[in-house]
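Feature request disguised as a bug: please show the residue count (157) next to Cupin type-2 domain-containing protein in the output. Example input:
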Amino acid sequence: MRFLPQMNPALLAGAVAIATLSAPLAIAQTTPPATASGHAEHLLADDHSWNGTPYDHYLTTRPMLSMIRLTIPAHSALPWHVHPYPNAGYVLEGTLTIEDRESGKKRTFHQGEAFAESVNNVHRGVTGDGQTVLLLTYAGSPGKPTSIPLPGQQKEY
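Example output, currently without the count:
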């Protein structure tokens, strides 16, 4: 006859608890997930930028998508710059007034609003009383900048 060694009662209780908790996990892993569609809230669909300038064409080089979370202090103006590629922004926090240098057009975007940026138009963003946090998505090209400052200006980011 073979005897099992004495097990510490606390260890035995822990082993039983682990086995009990693991059983539902094994069952859950064998059940396939239900198929469901997600809820889409379309924030932006434009063929032109916020200032009315139409987008001409897409890149002919290898594309590279990039996304930036940009935080700008209150009462600040970004340097004058251009974007060589189409891009879109979404205001996560605060407000952003975009100014077009040539035309003088201005438009303010608030938290929860999306905007289509201009391509090859000199512009800048100006914040209000609080910091502004933006989510910016660019359709660029590997190794190429997504924002180009005017001569003598700082980089946008």
